[in-house]
Amino acid sequence: MGFFRKQLLSIIEWQDENKDILVYRFPLKNREEIMNSSTLVVRESQVALFMHKGEIADVFGPGTYKLTTENIPFLTKLLSLPTGFNSRIKAEIYFVNTKQFIGQKWGTQNPIMMRDADFGSIRLRGFGTYSFKIDDVKVFMKEVFGTNCIYKVSDLSEQCKSILIQNISDAIGESGVSALDLVANYKEISDKISQVSDSQFKSMGLKLCQVIVENLSLPEDVEKTLDERSKLGILGDKMGTYAQYQTAQAIRDAAQNPSGGNLAGLGVGLGAGAQVGGLFANAINSAKDEEDLVKCVKCGIKISKSTNYCPECGASQNIKCPKCGENVSSGAKFCVSCGEKLIKTKICPKCKKQLNSNAKFCPECGEKI
C-alpha cells in the first residue's frame, strides 16, 4: 500500500496490580493514536491526567468516558483541532493512585532531644507507622513527580519520614507531656505530630492520614533511674529506707563476688567495706528503734514504749490493770503483776480514761463508746 495503517487506541485503562505505585504513565506505542470515541476507564481511587508538552491539560476522576472534543476541552483547545478530533493527538496519559498507603514505617536513626521538667534535657528514640495519600493531584504532579514513567511509595517514603522525625520534638514540647507520662499519652503525641506535619505534606499535594507512635524509649541510664525511683516508691520515700536498700544491695554484691571473698572484690577496698558495714549496722538499729515506738494515747505522736508521759501533750501513758490495779504501759497485752489479759480494756476516745470492757459510756465525760 505504500503506507502503514494507523493503529487506533480503543481502550485506555490501568489495572493496578502493584500495591506501592503512586503514578503510572500509560504506554503509547509508536503508531498508537488517541482517536475520537476512544474509551477511557478510570477506576476507584484513581485519577487520569492528560498532559501536553509538560502541562496538565485535562483531569478525569473515577468513571468511564468516551473521549470527544466535548469532554477534553482544554486539550482540544491546546491542539486547535478543527477536524473534530480525527487527527493524531500527541499527549501523555498518567494514572495517579489516590488510595491511602498504610503501614509506612518511621523511626529515629539518631536520638532526638527533649526538655523535661523532671530530668532536664534527655534523648529519645522512637518508632511507629504512618499512612498518607495523594490529596491534590495537580500540586503533586508539579512539585514531586517530574517526568518519571513510574513513581513508587519508596521514592517518597524517606522524605515523609524525615518530616515526621523533624517534628517529633516540637510535637512533644507542645503537648507538655513529661518523660514519666510518655507511654500513657502516645495517642495525644501522635495527633500532635500529625498537626505539626500537616502543612508540609500539603505543600507536596499529600495528606497525612494517620501517625501511630508505637514506642518512645529513654536512654538506658534514665530508665535505670526510673526503676530505682519505682523501687523506692514501693519501699517508702525515706532516706533511712534508701540507705537500708543500698546497703543490702552492696552486701549482696559483695557476697556474690568470687574474687577476694570480701568487699574489696567490689573495688571499694577495706575502708569502704567498713563504711558499708557501718551503714548496715545503722540501718538495723534504725529498724529496731522503729519497732520500739508506740503512739501516744492522746495526741498520737510516736514515743518510746518505756516513756510514762508524752513529751508533747503530757498525757500519762500508763493504764491500770482492771484486776489488780497495777500500772502497766499502754502497749502491754498482759498485766506484769497478775497476768490479766488487757485486750478487753477500753479507752475513752475523747478523754482517754481507762474503762471496763463492758462500758457503753464514759463515766468521766459521757462519751458514747
Task: Describe this protein with a few key phrases.
369 residues; alpha+beta; five-stranded antiparallel sheet; four-stranded antiparallel sheet; 7 helices; 30% helix; elongated; disordered N terminus
Based on secondary structure, the structural category is alpha+beta
Shape designation: elongated
Low-confidence stretches: 1-8, 80-87, 265-270
DSSP E strands, number = 18
Strands ordered across the widest β-sheet: 5-4-7-2-11
- Series of H and E elements: EEEEEEHEEEEHEHHEHHHEEEEEE
Mean pLDDT: 76
Question: Could you tell me how far the N terminus lies from the C terminus, measured between alpha carbons in angstroms?
Answer: 125 Å
In DSSP terms (H or I, runs of 4 or more residues), the helix count works out at 7
The description of the largest β-sheet is: 5 strands, antiparallel
Oligomer: single chain
DSSP strand content: 25-35%
Cα-atom radius of gyration: 42 Å
Helix content: 25-40%
List the helices and strands and how they pair.
Blueprint: E1 7-12, E2 21-25, E3 32-42, E4 46-52, E5 55-60, E6 63-66, H1 73-79, E7 92-97, E8 101-107, E9 112-116, E10 120-134, H2 137-145, E11 150-152, H3 154-175, H4 186-202, E12 206-217, H5 220-235, H6 239-256, H7 269-291, E13 293-295, E14 302-304, E15 318-320, E16 327-329, E17 346-347, E18 354-355
Parallel strand pairs: 1-3
Antiparallel strand pairs: 2-7, 2-11, 3-6, 4-5, 4-7, 8-10, 9-10, 10-12, 13-14, 15-16, 17-18
Helix pairs in contact: 3-4, 6-7
